[in-house]
Amino acid sequence: MITTAKRLDTVEEYYFSSKLREVRQLMSEGKSIINMGIGSPDLSPSKAVIEAVAAAIQDENGHGYQSYQGLPEMRQAMADFYRDQFGVEVNPNNEILPLMGSKEGIMHISLAFLNEGDHVLIPNPGYPTYTSVTNLVQAVPVYYDLKEENGWEPDFEALEKLDLSKVKIMWLGYPHMPTGARGSLALFEKLVAFAKKHNILLINDNPYSFVLNDNPMSLLQVEGAKDVALELNSLSKTFNMAGWRVGMVLGNPEIIDAVLKVKSNMDSGMYYGIQKGAIAALKCDKSWFEDQNKIYRRRRELTEKLAEKLNCKVYKEGVGLFVWAKLPEGIESAEKFIDEILYEKHIFITPGTIFGSNGEGYIRFSLCVKEEKVQESIDRF
């Protein structure tokens, strides 16, 4: 029998991959499941995006292999977006690398910089892929705590007490997933100083900046951040283009070039039409964000009512695509709690435990659910 690589022993199937099979099985049995678990936008991209792609399909020169670095006009659109939205200047020629979704960037960056045995600082709670990729490249996850009493921000005194001699990369993501904590420029300044002090590559995963957030920020706004930091961003949540797989990584040319060495051996460029759609999206004006947030605001208000119906305490300061809520006193297992709701009320909610041990005692609701379905969820109780 052919055996799998040992690295597969370090990871499990992604939670949503396996859990959604369970959900689909219930649906096949005739159960009317309301999925409030996964953050896949159910809204459409703008009309301009669809029209740009439709036009590109007719371009007879648009069906061949594309540049590993993407169309120059797409990189320029990304640079313009960062200038207009964050006040950050980046060179489109060598400080931006388009990605097929920011998730692949996590793997590319890890392959480019991590050797076996290197240590990686990972937030707890945080995006599970940071841990999976770290294990797959045979580096060592080192978790740093994020707790509600500290506003879901790092404790720098605790960080300084860690053995940082082998740490090569530090992952963070503000606005934070899953809690929705906003972060601040003051926090980013501390993180950049910490990374410089300990010679750590700092990476901010930043796909949620424009959802229900009146103050979008970039780590690259901090003076000198490019010396030690990268930022990942994505069109998935901001422009309802999750399935299109368009992201970007931004930073100084030497670091970007290292990531490109990996990426150029992994794919043969992004489809021309998708790039044209991305350019149109990045040119959307302020009204796009305002209209999207009107919808998400109404959904959040209803979702908070649902959480309160479950006697959960909502983290009101949260922004982004999710509502983070603390379970009632006496509930010992978030996973048992959500399974009871799934099988009794046919509503799927995410347990906080999949994001790390500090997620125990919490659950997460997605806002990618139409208002009438959220109201139906409330009515089921």
UniProtKB/TrEMBL annotation:
GO terms for molecular function: transaminase activity. Coiled coil: none annotated. Pfam families: Aminotran_1_2. Residues 32-381 form the Aminotransferase class I/classII large domain. It comes from the Bacteria. Keywords: Aminotransferase, Transferase. Its cofactor is pyridoxal 5'-phosphate. Its EC number is 2.6.1.-. Belongs to the class-I pyridoxal-phosphate-dependent aminotransferase family. This is Aminotransferase. It comes from Flavobacterium anhuiense.
